[in-house]
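#onboarding

Welcome to the new folks! Below is a worked example of what a typical request in this channel looks like: someone posts a single protein sequence, and someone else replies with the predicted structure as tokens. Don't worry about understanding the tokens yet, we'll cover that in week two.

Example request:
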Amino acid sequence: MVKDTLAGITSGWIVETEAYLGPGDQAAHSYGNRRTARTEVMFGPPGYAYTYVMHTHCLVNVVSGQVNHPEAVLIRAVEPCSGIELMMQRRGSHLKEQDLTNGPGKLTKALGITKEDYGLPLFERPLFLAADNELEIDSISVGPRIGIDNSGEAKDYPWRFWMSGNRFVSK
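Example response:
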């Protein structure tokens, strides 16, 4: 994931995600086909940014469902790739590198992703996904999503995915 701002470019390899599968997923913002100003981008085509504020932190999702199938994937953690000094300025120079981006609110602050990025296409600047083959993937772990205890049986769905053993995965 790459973010180009006036302050500079920052990027990180995505190492942890959570899937939210729309109308039938009690943990999804679009559960029951709930269509609001906040969720509108999810009803459009895939490949766009769904940003929102949760507990004072901006979070970023990739819209993943087809038109009128409101699904998204939350980016939970990235491994910093470029612009690490700028990330430290944004998050605090006292932090260890592994604590810069090991959570959904941490990574958006470090990369400079804000609520204003809502609805941007993730295939062009200033916020985009880029392929890179430098990060080796030994295995992917799967488990329940985090922080959604009030979402009925959906809290147990194994829709969280992370790179096994990667030190930038959230706690």
